[in-house]
Write a structure and sequence with these properties.
heterodimer; A: mainly alpha; B: alpha+beta; Alpha-Beta Plaits; two-stranded antiparallel ribbon; two-stranded antiparallel sheet
Chain lengths: 353, 211
């Protein structure tokens, strides 16, 4: 009796649990896809063909068109707004701020510290620093660079600075001339940069003492004399900024200049970004170079005009180079020029090798 | 005053290129320049759609913003025009334009760009209305004659609408309601979302393509 009652209770329990399990499975099984979708959602959910189509178009997907032309199959130029923002909100205001602050700092530095004098005054004995070929390369690069820099800056800032002065039609003519000059002489800059590289690269590699020169800020920080070879670390950095910046400017410039190879707007916009940044960096650093070569350091300008510097200048700024020249013991180097800048002396060949 | 806008209905455009041809003929545009073009997406596949596109005469026009010589101006109708006597052909407007509207005739030395040419909404340029000089440089000035752009007037399926923005969008809204299918004013977000430098266009105006 008790055994049968026991087995009856077990039977009922089994039935109840089976029904409950079935009910639970019936309710839960259909939820599995939802759970899966919750854990690993299908990309984009249920796709709407129309919205997918126009999203792709918005992102710059190309279609087909009967009209021949650069990017003519693209309905929306996805990079246009980014480029506009870069040019109008970043390049123009930040570039002006960058160039202006560096110029202001240089003027302030000159007013506070004045020019760096030759220690003990000039001796009157001159040695040749740059031969005629080196000076030609330098001034060739300078001419092309400033022609391009000025025309480029007019195209970048003229709308804000020159239209109020010249009027819209007058500035249109000026800008047109600037654009033509910039595009015509631009490719020559690559030639100038390659010449500059070949002419000066041998003395612009890192040498012992350059780090110390930099750490002492070229002699401005801490006491003591900073030693340098033919070019100090600052001049070497300027050389590499000019060469690498010049190459970026040349390559991006050629892409922008010759718009006949089917390059699209994105390539042109990226080239313009690189061109603008490189131009403003090289122009701004050149302010420092011009300052140090003219008003900043007494006796430097002669090295690029007639090619000669005073021995005292060489000893105080480029002691290791001075020692090398002395060791070479060439007579020409010790010849004091009678008058600066005579064409006859420009023909003297540099015998430093 | 109206605020002129273009609207192309992708559910209706059949890529017949009549708008392109009408534009070329009406404005005598230079060789190699197309002020309007029809682009087909998914050509030959299910879901193929075509779109006729030209200058959309944006409110906050990127071309006007980036122009280094400031040669663009807005008419009272919200049409974006430019002065070819000032344009230097630098191509910046082409980099900035969302719709690829600016065109450059390749007629100068070394393949350099000539002066920019683009859709004028058949509104000519800064020279005297309908003068031969204006026609030679900018094409037809139908707006001055009280007419709307020929591309939209010619459209056989009434896909391309041109005219006052409010009228155009009202026609389009009605269409979308009646056909019960999706449809949106392509390019309007890009062209007119921003308030731009000109505000407060009045509502009244006229439009072509009503049905």
């Amino acid at each position: 009796m008790s055994h049968r009652a026991q087995s009856g209770a077990a039977h009922r329990r089994i039935i109840v649990w089976s029904l409950l399990s079935l009910l639970a499975l019936t309710l839960l099984l259909p939820l599995i896809p939802y759970a899966v979708a919750y854990v690993a959602p299908v990309a984009g959910g249920v796709p709407n063909p129309g919205s997918d189509l126009w999203r792709a178009v918005r992102e710059g997907e190309a279609g087909t068109t009967q009209v021949q032309g650069v990017d003519s199959g693209i309905l929306i130029n996805a990079s246009g707004e980014t480029w506009r923002h870069f040019r109008m909100q970043q390049l123009i205001p930040l570039g002006a701020l960058f160039m202006g602050s560096v110029l202001a700092l240089i003027v302030l530095f000159f007013l506070v510290r004045g020019p760096l004098r030759i220690q003990g005054g000039p001796t009157g004995k001159k040695i040749q620093r740059f031969n005629v070929f080196e000076r030609t390369t330098h001034w060739f690069t300078v001419s092309i660079f400033w022609l391009l820099a000025l025309t480029g800056l007019i195209l970048l800032y003229g709308r804000f600075v020159l239209i109020p002065v010249l009027g819209p039609a007058g500035f249109g003519l000026t800008a047109s001339a600037c654009k033509e000059a910039h595009n015509l002489f631009g490719p020559m800059f690559l030639v100038a940069i390659l010449m500059l590289f070949v002419t000066f690269v041998k003395d612009n590699f890192y040498a012992r003492g350059d780090m110390m020169w930099l750490l002492k800020g070229g002699g401005m920080i801490g006491g003591g004399h900073v030693s340098a070879g033919r070019f100090n670390a600052g001049e070497k950095i300027w050389f590499w900024i000019a060469v690498l910046g010049g190459l970026v400017l040349s390559v991006s410039g050629l892409i922008l200049d010759f718009a006949v190879f089917g390059q699209g707007r994105e390539v042109m916009a990226i080239s313009h970004v690189l061109h603008g940044i490189a131009a403003l960096i090289v122009i701004t650093v050149s302010f420092g170079h011009i300052y140090l070569g003219t008003a900043g350091v007494e006796g430097t300008l002669g090295s690029m005009t007639n090619g000669y510097v005073d021995e005292a200048w060489a000893k105080s700024h480029h002691d290791r180079w001075y020692a090398e020249v002395k060791a070479a013991g060439s007579a020409e180097h010790e010849t004091a020029p009678v008058d600066d800048g005579s064409p006859a002396r420009d023909g003297v060949m540099d015998t430093r090798g | 005053m109206a605020r002129m806008k273009f609207l192309c209905d992708a559910e209706r455009c059949i890529e017949c290129n009549a708008c392109v041809t009408a534009c070329k003929n009406e404005n005598e545009v230079p060789w190699g320049v197309n002020r309007r073009r029809v682009v087909t997406i998914n050509d030959g596949s299910p879901g193929e759609r075509s779109m006729s596109v030209a200058c959309m005469h944006c409110s906050d026009a990127p071309c006007e913003a980036v122009c280094p010589v400031d040669c663009f101006y807005f008419t009272d109708d919200g049409v974006v025009l430019h002065d070819k006597d000032i344009c230097i052909g630098c191509g910046y407007c082409f980099y900035a334009c969302p719709f690829g509207a600016p065109q450059f005739p390749k007629m100068e030395a070394f393949g350099s760009r000539g002066k920019m040419d683009k859709c004028t909404f058949c509104a000519g340029g800064p020279l005297p209305d309908n003068s031969p000089e204006e026609y030679a440089k900018y094409g037809s000035n139908r707006l001055a004659e009280g007419k709307l752009p020929l591309c939209a007037e010619m459209c056989a399926t009434r896909a391309l609408l041109a005219g006052d923005g409010d009228t155009v969008s009202e026609i389009f809204r009605e269409r979308v309601t009646w056909r019960g299918a999706s449809g949106f004013a392509w390019g309007w977000g890009v062209a007119y979302k921003k308030p731009g430098i000109r505000r407060g266009y009045e509502v009244e105006g006229k439009a072509t393509g009503g049905d």
